[in-house]
Amino acid sequence: MENKHTPGPWRVKDVQPDAWTRQVWTDESHGSVMIATTGGIDKEANAALIAAAPDMYEALEAVRAIIPQHNAGTPWARAADKIHAALAKAEGR
């Protein structure tokens, strides 16, 4: 499927430690996404996870292309099912 998301890499923009939001940036031409949190460590963890999303998507696509086909119920089959489901969710399917 064709990628329709903002291209990576994404990064977390440094902001004041006491701020209630974090920004995830691509580059200057693509802008940023604001991530609102309730404070605490959640804002750091959420921003890091979102910033890693394009890299994780690319990695899962690469694994999907080479993962062997196995009988249902095997660890490989369960992993392949999770990979397909995660990619489908990311692609809005």
Explain what you see.
There is one protein chain. With 93 residues, the protein is an alpha+beta fold. The chain has one domain. The protein is 44% helix and 14% strand. It has helices at residues 42-66, 75-90; strands at 11-13, 21-25, 32-36. A hairpin with a 6-residue loop joins β2 (21-25) and β3. α1 crosses α2.
Short description:
By secondary structure, the chain is an alpha+beta fold.
Secondary structure layout plus pairing:
Elements: E1 11-13, E2 21-25, E3 32-36, H1 42-66, H2 75-90
Antiparallel strand pairs: 1-2, 2-3
Helix pairs in contact: 1-2
Strand portion, in percent? 5-15%
Reported for the largest beta sheet, the result is:
3 strands, antiparallel
Give me the strand/helix succession. Answer: EEEHH
Helical amount: 40-55%
Taking all Cα atoms into account, the compactness measure Rg is: 16 Å
Number of helices: 2
Content-based structural category: alpha+beta
Give me the count of strands: 3
Order of strands side by side in the largest beta sheet? Answer: 1-2-3
User: What is the average of the pLDDT values?
Assistant: 79
Shape: elongated
Separation of the first and last Cα atoms: 10 Å
Q: Which regions are unreliable across 5 or more consecutive residues at pLDDT < 50?
A: none
The figure for the number of domains is 1
Provide the descriptors you would attach to this structure in a database record.
alpha+beta; 2 helices; three-stranded antiparallel β-sheet; elongated
